[in-house]
Records
---
Amino acid sequence: MAKKKYYVVWSGRKTGIFNTWAECERQVKGFQGARFKSFESKAEAEAAFSTGRAPTRKTSANQKSSQAKEESISDVVWDSVSVDVGCRGNPGIVEYKGVHTQTGEILFSHPEIHIGTNNMGEFLAIVHGLAWLKQQGKDETPIYSDSKTAMKWVKDKRVNSSLKRDKDTEYIWTLVERAEKWLKANTYKNPILKWRTELWGEIKADYGRK
């Protein structure tokens, strides 16, 4: 059985001591400059809230990891686009979508592509997101991806994949070339950010096919 925790919110929609993470999250999620922390006793929480800071004490590695997760979620830019790929095999059948990070609303998607790789799909999803945001006039909205490789390809404006080009992969390579041309012909200000799965859980566009 999980230990009872108390959550102090010093800066959020409401401040105070909350008995559950769900209550705490409602106060800090998407709140700029949120400051909060969990405690294992009500006395510690009350002392921390009254002084405006956490007391110094030794914590285990697991406790530090849990606290880091709870605190760092306030770093997420919730008004953003998150992209992800659904891949059956790698190489395999690929599809992708982009969602609003906070609401999960699907903003755009591409149906199944016969043969491709996960990183190629991520690359296409990011570029699709950039083009979509440009059309919407949202030139500062960030895009989250969990693929460092795809993010580098976007920065380089070139896909460096070892996937052989043949009749089965021709379609995804055609899409990739079109995306590369778009990157070379357009400018954008939108930050492309790495989704920190180890702290925040699966990206909001995840297909759940792990």
---
Amino acid sequence: MNTLMNMSSVIYSPNMWLPVDVTWDHLNKYIDYQIFIYSLPIAVILMIMKYFVERYCFEYFGRCLGINDTKAKKVPPNEILEKAYINQKLQQKQILSLAKQLDLSERQIKRWISVRRSQNKPSKLRKFCESGWRCFYYTCSFSYGLIILWNKPWLWDINQCYYNYPDHVVTNDIWWYYAISIGFYLLSSISQFFDVKRKDFWQIFIHHMITNLLLYISWIMNWTRIGSLVLLLHDSSEIFLEMAKMTNYANYQRTCDFLFIIFTIIWIVTRIGIFPFWIIHSLFTEVSKLMINLTFYLLITLMCLLFLLHVIWTCVIIRIAYNALYVGQVEGDIRSESDESDIENSDIVINNATSYAEKRSHTKKTH
């Protein structure tokens, strides 16, 4: 028992988390822990909004644009093939064995598997609606963040994030900015398991977990000034990504290409330029002056992990942009109307790389 009490006193020691001569009682004067309780009903409200915005706004808008909610052709029921399809990734030997067992040709087995696989693919209209909801949220969040931060001194001078720390009063507008953001990322962490599955599912899941941790820690430690800057910075590029996805699903190819270029520029400027050289750099230089303890290392680690994800995704984005430019010069059109993968994969549109590679191969064959 004494050992546990000693460990607890060490873990919660102000020296582990706070600057010298700052106590928890001092910090708690500025922290409203009820925000974590309020963020739960906010997440529920956002979930209800998500349903209605997708169902009654963007679904109607998508149909007006001619996006069909076509369902994939269903395969005839076959318990043996269904069991084999669900339980294992079929290799050539398994396919030949199934063909012999069911007295079907190898071509028929492959065709059944192909059609069965297509049944799991969501329709373009569903993807359009999900992108529409995210575009709606990020537009509202970025606009609100820009409005409330415009007159804040730390938007223009990042050193203001650290002056007189921790004596930073959290105003109502910042409280709501954080509460809504916490609710949204809490909802996103859950809804990700029910939304359209993407190839970078686990990367996005890790991204959401890091974001949630940063929101919680920055609030508890009263680092809301630097936290609000990170939120504003990351929302900016998401708007154009989701708009690019939507125009792609609606087959507005030139508009899609234009929006993707804007997204790429904003992404590189904010997440590869401003984020590491302005935000993270300030943490190294300014926070280290205040304290070198667990808080410092935790913030730096989470920020660097977030930046690492940005670097990985940026490599994919640059490859997509390069392929788009190359294919555009050959064909004059960098995306086919039937491609369901274009600008598909969450923050970084991973599937485009595959579709562009296929186009390049197809172009060489036709020429």
---
Amino acid sequence: MNSFDVIVIGAGIIGSSVSYYLTKAGYSVALIDKGDIANGTSSRCDAVALICDKKPGIDTDIGYRSIQLYKELAQSFSFDFQFSTRGSLYVCETEQELEIAKDYVAQQVKAGYQMKTVNKEELPDIEKHLAKDLAGGVWTEVDSTMNPYMVCYAFVEEAKKQGLKLITHEEVKAINQSPLGAVESVQTTTQTIYTKKVVNCAGVWASKLGDLVGIDIPIKPRKGLILVTERTSKIVNQKVHEFGYMLSKFEDINYKRKVSQLVEKNNIAFTIEPTEASNYLVGGHRDFSGYGTDTNHEVMKGIAERANRFLPILKNVNCIRAYAGVRPWVVDHLPIVSEVDEVPGYFIASGHEGDGISMAPITGKMMTELISRQDTEFNIDRLKFSRYKNKKIENL
């Protein structure tokens, strides 16, 4: 019989990680995707694992733990995914931003994380090309980077050594249930596969897989566009982004940046990071505009405007292409890592927004612990799907 202990749906970074940890724990696993490995959001994102962009508490806790797991995986995996701990620098444009940042850093330091504020005189020692009128910043040494494509393939290749069955270019059409609602099998475009457990790792498409079993998964696609520079001499040493990026991410209504109408309209906040190929990824923006991944010239212009404000040297660097992706947004900015009480055997690991790469290892580990009925490393009550009962989000 064509059957597995667990079927994982979605071969992006989260599904790849979940599959790896499940196979490592001894489960027979099939990983299914309607496209290929890293075909969706994971191929249209940046390439960092950060704690500096997380809210204090469980958001930071699991982000930090993920970085530690990445360090271990980089040593044990046979597939090199270009992991590096470079650190990251938030830059504050104004004294008001710096005061907000100081309070944020104080909370993180109190929780035991190494993070520090730097004044305007110290900024040139960290990144010499920054604009001279910035107020200061936040430096986080532990923040890391990797190749998002390669890390997906690394997880899959290691899982295949443990027996993972990879099924690509097959779309899940139905999830069949018993009379009591429990998962019994998965129907793809070509076959029926039997299982008692399904993990929905479909990211922005997770709600569509929820529809197959009659549950409402409140995930919306949030679009982001990134510019890619030509290969050039060193501009920055690490991830650099404006502190307004965090305020933009969490929609902080208590702070209003003084930016152009173009930047404000498109919710643009500056970010740049180096690649191993000597290009730079420059972003970014956040926009609720459906599932489309087309690029937009107006947004590109706004990103360039904001980037030049923080790094004037970029005026002399060409942009060779742009790409956009959609990130799985949830209203409280915490992923869903949970069983679904209404559908026995149905699990969800989605809703990471822009933190899929960052939180992939710990998500795979926690999901394996859930399925194994073990205590999870963290208290993940705040990540449960049940937190959305009796709550609604706007329809797309």
